[in-house]
Amino acid sequence: MSHTALLTIAVAGVVTLLLLILRAKVQPFVALVVVSVGVALAAGVPAADLVKTIEDGMGATLGHIATIIALGAMIGRIIELSGGAHAFAHSLIEKFGSRRTPLALTVAGFVLGIPVFFEVGLIILMPIAYGVARASRKPLLIYALPMGAAMLTVHAFLPPHPGAVAVAATIGASQGLMLLLGIPVTAVVALLGYFVSRRLTRREYPMDPVVYAEVYGEPEAGDGGGSAPASVADGHGTAVLTKPAPSETDVRPPSFGMVLALIVTPILLILLGTIGQNALAEGSTLRAVLTVLGAPMVALLIDVALCGWFLGARRGWDRARIAEVMGSALPPVAMVILVAGAGGVFGKVLVASGIGDAIADVLDRTGLPVLVLGFLTALALRAAQGSATVALITTAGILTPLLHRADLSTGQLSLVALAMGAGALALSHINDAGFWMFTKLAGLDVAAGLRTWTVLTTVMGCAGFALTAALWPLV
């Protein structure tokens, strides 16, 4: 089949995918599988090979990421239900002082965003922003905007978040190098977001009366207000405002140092494994030990055990309670894992059908560096369909043949993965559940959300790409 025909099929497949997700409101996992089957058949993949292609794509992807995402979710859930997230954020506010509370919440969003998914982190920290805004009588957006943007930055860029993990597995990047290079990049981006948000919040925006009453305790709150509403996603990925679950913290919240140590432990283990593989001689015992301990799955498994002991067993949870908390982390991420696997199927179909090579030829002829192509492709898909995770997974599938042809080093592939993360961070707008979640919790209308949240995430995404590009000559 000619390149033109293959490219036409690819474009038709992506357009169909967008229409199914955006217009028909089909669940992304189902939409990806349907489009993958349709593209495979249209591109001439033999019917006898179709099922095997789908199984190979799903298995290869989930073999890398399912365990990591599940373990990461368990860590976040234990930190959440033990009261560790609240204790950590309040400790930062005390350490930074009242004048720098927005910066303290930005740091809290960044650090807690590493083990905790964006949606969950926003639900955990938004009540704290509510309380600070109520006490200071300042606009909620001053505190909420940089905090939420910092969490979204980590979600788009770094493992163990699903998009970053899937990209690393698909293109062959190193999760250790992504953390080693990505943590400084995302820290700078989050700090930039803090300063940009200060400018964006100089003017006040209209605030939903119900949320205003919740935050500032006005009489029209009905029940006296005081507790912030939480937000969850319905079956179509739309943010829905609900009341928060009852707190499960006890009288002895975890200390700041304990929570920080548990968040940093898997990161340090993964980084040690990466350093050991690059600095120690092959065959050495120390290198072998660090390689095992630094494998993302092992590092996260160790941290789950540590969290279960220090945040659970030592604070009164019995084994049944610990198992229950760990189990409760899995249902919310099950669909995320399946979507990631379906994205792997789509990527496998692109390769098996020859579409990947056709796309690689076209992209190669543009003359654009692979770093730029990774950023622009993720940016376009993020703007078109909303989900950062789907944008990252689809971009990785599209660009993998080109990246393999370019014969890049592991470090360069890791920077390409970060560039994709920068594209997935930008342009969070009305087709993104995260946009609706933030604006509903902050009491913003659509226009105000576009002027603040969308502008800020786009500026931060572009800055993240610029920093990633600046590192390219160094790897």
Automatic annotation (TrEMBL):
Q: What does the UniProt keyword field contain?
A: Membrane, Transmembrane, Transmembrane helix
On the tree of life, the source organism's domain of life is Bacteria
Q: Which InterPro entries match?
A: Glcn_transporter
GO MF terms here are: gluconate transmembrane transporter activity
User: Which residue ranges does UniProt annotate as crossing the membrane?
Assistant: 6-22, 29-48, 103-128, 140-158, 178-197, 256-276, 288-312, 333-355, 375-399, 411-430, 450-472
Cellular component GO terms, alphabetically? Answer: plasma membrane
Alphabetized NCBIfam families for the sequence = gntP (TIGR00791), PRK09821.1 (NF007332)
Stated name of the protein: GntP family transporter
Its taxonomic path starts at:
Bacteria, Bacillati, Actinomycetota, Actinomycetes, Kitasatosporales
